[in-house]
Every structure is written in C-alpha cells, then in structure tokens.
C-alpha cells in the first residue's frame, strides 16, 4: 500500500474494517483538516486504491490553497467545523503559525500548554476563517458526488 500517507498508519489499521463496512462497494469519506490533500492524509489511499469519493475540509487559507492545487479528486471545502445547526454562517479565529503548517486550529480551543508546545512564538498569528456545522457543510456537496 504505497499510497498510505497517514502519520501513524491509521489508514492501514482501519482498512479491513472500512472495506468490510463498505460491503465491497466504493465508500465515502470526510477528512477534517485536509492540509494539502497528500501529507498525513488518512483518506488518500481509500481514494486512489479503492475508488472511494469524499470531502476534504480545511480551515487554514494557506493550507486550503495547497489543497486546491493537489491532484485529489475529493471535493475541497474551505471552512472550520463548528458546533451548531449550521443555519447561520459564522467565523472563528484560527491559528496560522503552527508547526510546518500542520498544527493549526481554533485558538480559543487550545490550552496554553498546547499553544506553547506547538505554536511557540507564532501563537498569536491568527486569521478569521469561515465556520459551519458539518451538517451544513455536507449539505453544500452536490448529490451527484455520492458523499
């Protein structure tokens, strides 16, 4: 499985369970924190090797730009995922200075210790990003995409 890109081989660990649950058909996935679509992706193997389709959600504007340039077939959505019914669009302050661009997130949801370890002197670099519920984000995906 050369296409495995997940950081801790999570995709390989879950592969037999996912394929069994899909019943021999191509399944569907949602990956929150899509980064560039390749690096540490837990879904790229499913897409490339097993014909699955899905959605990659990425909040960071810089990372979303990378995701849009990736060769992935999955639908890319620029948003953070927030609690709520999704009936109104909102936004959150999202860190932008995380380690190598991987460790970003809603600043207010991070502990001081986490920010110190993973963001360091960049802990105050933030951007305001769109934020919607997962339900409302998936409602924007065309039905023909089978997600």
From TrEMBL:
Annotated Gene Ontology cellular component terms: endoplasmic reticulum membrane; Golgi apparatus; late endosome membrane; plasma membrane
Superkingdom: Eukaryota
Family matches, as InterPro entries: EGF_Rcpt_Signaling_Reg, SAM-dependent_MTases_sf
An annotated GO BP: endosomal transport
Signal peptide stretch: none
Name of the protein in its database record: Uncharacterized protein
Species name: Haptolina ericina
């Amino acid at each position: 499985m050369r296409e495995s890109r997940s950081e801790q081989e999570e995709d390989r660990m879950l592969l037999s369970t996912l394929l069994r649950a899909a019943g021999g058909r191509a399944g569907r996935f949602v990956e929150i924190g899509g980064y560039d679509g390749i690096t540490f992706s837990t879904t790229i193997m499913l897409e490339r090797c097993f014909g699955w389709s899905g959605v990659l959600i990425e909040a960071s504007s810089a990372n979303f730009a990378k995701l849009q340039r990736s060769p992935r077939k999955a639908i890319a959505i620029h948003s953070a995922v927030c609690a709520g019914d999704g009936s109104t669009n909102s936004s959150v302050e999202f860190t932008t200075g995380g380690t190598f661009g991987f460790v970003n997130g809603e600043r207010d949801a991070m502990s001081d210790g986490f920010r110190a370890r993973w963001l360091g002197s960049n802990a105050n670099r933030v951007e305001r990003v769109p934020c919607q519920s997962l339900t409302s984000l998936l409602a924007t995906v065309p039905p023909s995409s089978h997600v």
